Q: What sequence folds into this?
């Protein structure tokens, strides 16, 4: 009798634990981030000039809200993009027919946790900057048509990484000033001219996918 009661109690605990696990892994809907960013960036006159500091401010949620709310294009110049939620949001934006172009430093493709290649495989235009004179150390996003039907720039010291948005001491500012945004767009176009499409990296990734699909053993 006691054994049966103990068994029932154990099953009940496992069942409850399973519910907690499922709930903890529940994905946050894009609408949540859009509403959050709209609330944080809200302005009576439609002008946005705000500064955020990590890890004190929730920079990542604001950025995700802007990505999910974009209607036209997203230009990304980032030294490192490793945050899976940012990568996922950019992929969703592309699926909505938003033009997404990413420029990163060539060293990004050597990072152990790099996720840029996956964006390439999904059809996002990814470009690699390589120069003997220095690295591509910019960290900014340009949004073409966002809140208040205006372009917006997000820039600062933080890389699009977990540490950049939640651990390190970083700063990020968000503006929709047309004159300043034009300077960022001009610089982005300049970086496009100075960068190339990393074809070899893409071919290797496709080959790896093909090997995995055919269950072929290989060594890295």
A:
């Amino acid at each position: 009798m006691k054994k049966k009661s103990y068994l029932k109690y154990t099953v009940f605990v496992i069942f409850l634990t399973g519910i907690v696990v499922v709930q903890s892994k529940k994905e946050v809907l894009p609408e949540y981030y859009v509403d959050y960013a709209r609330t944080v960036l809200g302005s009576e006159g439609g002008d946005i000039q705000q500064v955020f500091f990590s890890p004190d401010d929730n920079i990542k949620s604001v950025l995700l809200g802007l990505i999910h709310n974009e209607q036209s294009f997203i230009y990304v110049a980032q030294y490192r993009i490793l945050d899976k939620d940012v990568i996922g949001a950019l992929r969703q934006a592309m699926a909505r027919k938003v033009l997404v172009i990413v420029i990163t430093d060539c060293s990004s493709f050597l990072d152990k946790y790099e996720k840029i290649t996956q964006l390439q495989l999904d059809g996002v235009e990814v470009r690699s900057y390589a120069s003997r004179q220095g690295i591509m150390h910019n960290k900014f996003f340009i949004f073409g048509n966002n809140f208040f039907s205006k372009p917006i720039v997000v820039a600062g010291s933080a890389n699009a990484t977990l540490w950049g948005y939640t651990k390190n001491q970083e700063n990020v500012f968000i503006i929709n000033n047309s004159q300043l945004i034009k300077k960022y767009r001009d610089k982005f176009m300049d970086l496009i001219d100075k960068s190339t499409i990393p074809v070899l990296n893409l071919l290797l990734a496709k080959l790896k996918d093909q090997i995995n699909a055919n269950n072929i053993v290989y060594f890295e």
DSSP finds eight helices and eight strands in the chain. The radius of gyration is 21 Å. Helices lie at 2-24, 30-41, 59-69, 84-95, 116-121, 162-166, 178-193, 199-213. The longest strand covers residues 99-105.
